[in-house]
Amino acid sequence: MKRKYLYGIVCLAFSTGAYAGGEVHIGNWPDYMPSSLLTQFEKETGVKTTLDVYESDAALTEKLQAGAGGYDVAITGDYYVPILAHAGLLTKLDKSKLSNAANIKPEFAHPSFDPERNYAMPYMVVITGFSYDGARVTGGRLDDSWKPFFDPEPAVRGQIADLDAVEELYMAASWYLGQDECSEKPDDAKRVLAILEKQKPFVKIYSNDGPIDRIVSKQVIVQHNWNGSSERASQQLSSVKFVVPREGARMLLDNLVIPAKAKNLSAAYQFVNWMMKPEIIAEVSNALRYNNAIRGSEKYMDQALLRDPAINVPEDQKARLRPYKACSPAALSLRSKVWTKLKG
User: Fold this and answer.
1) 79 a known binding residue?
2) Which pLDDT tens digit goes with each residue over 151-185?
3) Coiled-coil ranges per the record (predicted)?
């Protein structure tokens, strides 16, 4: 997806005066925050906003490690919260300034990646599976398994797009094989690598950019994808379907964090707290087609979205969802080696 600066261009020259009028600099993934929301925040608070985008959580991490970005607030996934926190790249939150944290649903109040929510407040609840164009596959339907993704039918080969994210692909391949994504066994890592290498000749592109455009414009038939992204694609092309694979699908929590080098802490807290209002986060859900972790937001959400099984997974499929799990350094080292070999 082409990077879209939804509200202004990043300015790399900061000074005390730049924030005197009250400006909050936000970093996010492409197409992952409605521009109208930033305009609304400005009108309600008088705080100016600037939005910059990065291609992935890994790219955000590299920016913060290099002291770049200049973000007051950033969006990152659960997998990266402990990495950033342990590296000293995040501000430990003063929750007395976040009164709307009381709105967090109980099931999301103490996530394993940040049990006391000392570093991260919830943004969107995301499920990773895959989308496909039912008009272009045999019989109009693919099995609700990772098999059609990793071992595709002939018509689909060469027409697959994978997300360019080690955690997404490694976890999916592990679950497809029926093994623990945090295994420390080298043989398990070798099996994951074998699955990914077998699929590789059939993959047109590894990219986090453009999953909606790519499948809607029929550049691919199968797209490794997030449920909200898939839902937005289906609004443009009705034959797009989303699969929550029965072997396991990642349920990730994206979060609002305040980088350690934030220049305008006051505005950062104001923005994060504002985002946890039920009516505000519902605007994001309605626009991006993801669920959220804030109580009371349902009153403001599209009823069609609440009924969508790709967004609110049916009870009989909830066991498929796999929340964040902390892996040991040994397991993560194996994962990194697999990724290096795959992409090398």
Assistant:
1) yes
2) 999 999 999 999 999 999 999 999 999 999 999 99
3) none
